[in-house]
């Protein structure tokens, strides 16, 4: 093993790790008055690490346990970009809440470090180490407003259920190791190709997928999402639904499709059921929600169901569809949560959908962006959502999954109701008391503008996303 070579391969992760430790020292020395400096430093580290990802070349490290390829590069850029924007959101949010803490951007940085390790893992032990580094930081972030009962409850629920899911996954990994004699993804694939999948490996696969399904909040392990999304600080919720979702889906793709490449029929049955149930629960359960963050939690569950259709396909086309979908989802949601974070009246945060009534009459630009983002999440033409859904539905149909694809289209039609309800409240309801002016700080308008522009223009220039996603899918499944 060439240590120097391995460290070069890990350059983005090392930049983030060393930078996070340096930022921690700055915060410990200067206290909370250094929060703005630490936030700028951590956001800059995300940009530098992203540049390192972009200039990296395909390679492996630590005897193949860590892989750098176009697939990991695509997802890492999404993760780092989302994390940097969430740091900007957090800085503005906690200034408004008069609860500035320098630990927040550092925790986001450490969680992001775990995510980068996850998406490059090619060994179940490396996968688990990255996953736990991410999870421990996320538990703290969920409960960061420790004087807020809802935030404390969110952190506790997330911790207890997250620990259960991690144990479930670890048990599945131990079964896989016990029946194959290896923790390398390629080694497991080789054993399955030679000997097939016995009942022991099937059990291991089920437990592994159960743990992964929890991380993406898909049915039947979705129960934590509404409470955690509602109780967590808004920029933390944005982080959960963007960077964390991208990392979890990328991990699921690599941890299922590579070691079980010769067991597509076995895992497809599980994924199809999870996908269909998630699409429909997300579509139906969100209809009665009045709190917009809870609605976005059920929206997230539904969108994970649509994305999983690509995994169920088990093909390169399916991976491409999933990557396009998670990119659309991350960019659209970062804009949506900027809008949600800007929902303040007399300096206090408000979260009910009814608080948006008549917004178009008082703040037309903000209202248009909010409505456009909701329209995109609904998957209606001519915005980004329809592009992403077309790719995953086509991948599923080409793999013979006609019925799940049709059920997905029907669920999308049902789910469009609650997105359009928000647009209706914004444009047609009698005005409520006006929300505070502004989006909550510098940089927020830029984030919202870029997210909305992406939403509106993707159908015109789809090659911006489709080309990189196809290259990433080809790198994973040549």
UniProtKB/TrEMBL annotation:
Superkingdom, taxonomy of origin: Bacteria
Cellular compartments annotated: Cell membrane; Endomembrane system; Membrane
NADH:quinone oxidoreductase/Mrp antiporter transmembrane domain ranges (all copies): 121-414
TM region(s), chain numbering: 6-28, 40-62, 74-95, 102-119, 156-179, 199-224, 236-261, 267-288, 295-316, 322-343, 364-384, 390-420, 454-477
Keyword Transmembrane helix: yes
Membrane topology term: Multi-pass membrane protein
Pfam families attached to this UniProt entry: Proton_antipo_M (PF00361)
Reaction equations catalysed: a quinone + NADH + 5 H(+)(in) = a quinol + NAD(+) + 4 H(+)(out)
Main localization of the protein described in the UniProt heading: membrane
Enzyme Commission numbers on file: 7.1.1.-
Keyword Ion transport: no
InterPro entries listed in its UniProt record: NADH-Q_OxRdtase_suN/2 (IPR010096), ND/Mrp_TM (IPR001750)
Sorted UniProt keywords: Cell membrane, Membrane, NAD, Quinone, Translocase, Transmembrane, Transmembrane helix, Transport, Ubiquinone
Family: Belongs to the complex I subunit 2 family.
Quaternary context: NDH-1 is composed of 14 different subunits. Subunits NuoA, H, J, K, L, M, N constitute the membrane sector of the complex.
Role, per record: NDH-1 shuttles electrons from NADH, via FMN and iron-sulfur (Fe-S) centers, to quinones in the respiratory chain. The immediate electron acceptor for the enzyme in this species is believed to be ubiquinone. Couples the redox reaction to proton translocation (for every two electrons transferred, four hydrogen ions are translocated across the cytoplasmic membrane), and thus conserves the redox energy in a proton gradient.
Name of the protein this chain belongs to: NADH-quinone oxidoreductase subunit N
Gene transcribed to yield this protein: nuoN
